[in-house]
């Protein structure tokens, strides 16, 4: 009996040590919030994505912050360029993202992002809109809410989904996390940058960043009746899909005002 115990003790000690060691090891969260695998086609990294500025002076510094934040990624840079559309209709421009603000009305949405994709899951153009009908109200007329929504909607046009869609839990420190208190969720976090590295780990044989052919889905798509079918609805978050045929689709990501 004594011999058996003497043999078991070292083995038990090794098992215990292994358990303790595994508990003490740092836990690394894997990124997992790609938006359907959609991405800009490009032949090298880091690539440069143009953000068309169709904004008022109130929103200009907000877009500047967003552009600086996302450009910290190792796989992409964003450059703010003069807008190519009118803020009210905010029509998309092939090969880039148009960013607009206007009083779009009491239609329920605070901000939205739209991407047009082709049959290869490549983004060919994008739009970000922020609705001043709500941002001019006391609840949303502050820098924190503007930073969160702008950062998040531009993030969607890069191919990112949300990290979390529960408005009532603790903040994750990311603008891709929904919240009722945007104070600590105004910028991307490392999890967002890690996901971008995964999305853009491969290279393509062509690029959609300078595409000149018009996508079949040109038009003004700020009206929900033009967004197509509802594919996801969770609280104040919704995603719509409109199919133009031949693999060309429009996706609209919406955050509704409270």
Automatic annotation (TrEMBL):
<dbReference type="GO" id="GO:0008237">
    <property type="term" value="F:metallopeptidase activity"/>
</dbReference>
<dbReference type="InterPro" id="IPR024079">
    <property type="entry name" value="MetalloPept_cat_dom_sf"/>
</dbReference>
<protein>
    <recommendedName>
        <fullName>Peptidase M10 metallopeptidase domain-containing protein</fullName>
    </recommendedName>
</protein>
């Amino acid at each position: 009996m004594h011999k058996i115990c003497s043999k078991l003790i070292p083995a038990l000690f090794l098992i215990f040590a292994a358990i303790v060691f595994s508990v003490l090891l740092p836990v690394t969260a894997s990124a997992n919030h790609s938006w359907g695998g959609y991405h800009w086609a490009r032949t090298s990294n880091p690539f440069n994505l143009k953000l068309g500025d169709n904004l008022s002076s109130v929103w200009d510094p907000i877009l500047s912050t967003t552009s600086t934040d996302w450009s910290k990624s190792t796989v992409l840079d964003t450059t703010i360029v003069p807008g190519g559309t009118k803020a009210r209709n905010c029509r998309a421009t092939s090969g880039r993202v148009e960013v607009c603000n206007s009083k779009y009305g009491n239609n329920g949405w605070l901000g939205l992002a739209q991407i047009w994709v082709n049959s290869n899951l490549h983004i060919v153009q994008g739009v970000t809109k922020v609705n001043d009908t709500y941002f001019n109200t006391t609840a949303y007329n502050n820098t924190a809410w503007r930073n969160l929504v702008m950062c998040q909607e531009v993030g969607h046009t890069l191919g990112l989904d949300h990290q979390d869609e529960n408005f009532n839990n603790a903040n994750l420190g990311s603008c891709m996390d929904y919240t009722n208190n945007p104070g600590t969720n105004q910028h991307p976090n490392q999890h967002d940058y890690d996901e971008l590295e995964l999305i853009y780990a491969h290279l393509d044989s062509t690029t959609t960043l300078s595409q000149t052919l018009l996508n079949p889905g040109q038009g003004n798509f700020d009206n929900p009746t033009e967004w197509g079918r509802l594919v996801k609805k969770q609280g104040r978050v919704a995603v719509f899909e409109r199919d133009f045929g031949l693999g060309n689709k429009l996706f609209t990501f919406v955050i509704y005002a409270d």
